[in-house]
Amino acid sequence: MPEAQALGFEVVAEGFAFIESPRVMANGDLWFSDLNGGGVYRKRKGCAVETMLPGRQWVGGMVFDESGAVLCGGKGGIVALDPVSGATIPVLSELEGVPIIAVNDMEGDGRGGFFAGTIDFVSIMEKGEPPSPGSFFHVSAEGKVTVLRRDVFASNGIATSPCGNWLYHSETSRGIWRYRLGADGLPGAGTLLVEEEDSDGLAVDSEGNLWLACWSSSRLMQYAPDGTALQALTLPYTHIVSVAFDPTNRHRLFVATGGNDSAPKAGAVVSIQVKVPGLPGPQTRLEALSNWTNRAK
What is the pTM of this model? Predict the structure, then answer.
């Protein structure tokens, strides 16, 4: 498929190492992390970027909770951040009795819980080796943890179809998996819908089309619900890493980019306008956070 340059994009934040997990609150606040440089950040309209969780390493995913807390993945698992006080509490630090190396992308399930995946960033970032297999898992609103897969090369973007019947999961080195969701909200056996070796972040629009960040080829792909490629867009950045729709303007798609040794500060968040409105991810409603004091209102 021929590629086209994305036109008219707006730079929202720049000058970071490798931006991940862009998320937009209902009030328009943009949140993101710097995977390699560390930290979680917030960009309010008309304001400079604020550091909200300094130094946290390898944050590849974030989800907003109805309590006002922000769930942040990263090294050692998941923590909840209170944006008002800056306090954090642990949410998940092990799976099946084994300490978590790192949690990458996360997504609300629409029932108060969330899906997430682990990733071996120690091998990838520190040893320069292929990662050990990671897990794809679900945490219910009540805190029940269900491991769905234990053979994921590198877990990335997660999204649900507009009809609520399908769950999509991006696995780097493979592509996009599609799972039928059962009455309990959990997926059955998956099929590989799209083969894309450098698949990364993922989002879905209101027509069920899939927007996929392809990190090494620096493309932004759009696929129809049946997996047919619809368009390929490029941006003048070294890597295209993750995507998220703006709940205040669903025709606005935020795209996170990353740098490397040749372009060490190429991490940015840009926005583009798309024709079909998107589906921002749902918030969680974790019972463990319902009574947490000093949280944002």
Answer: 0.96
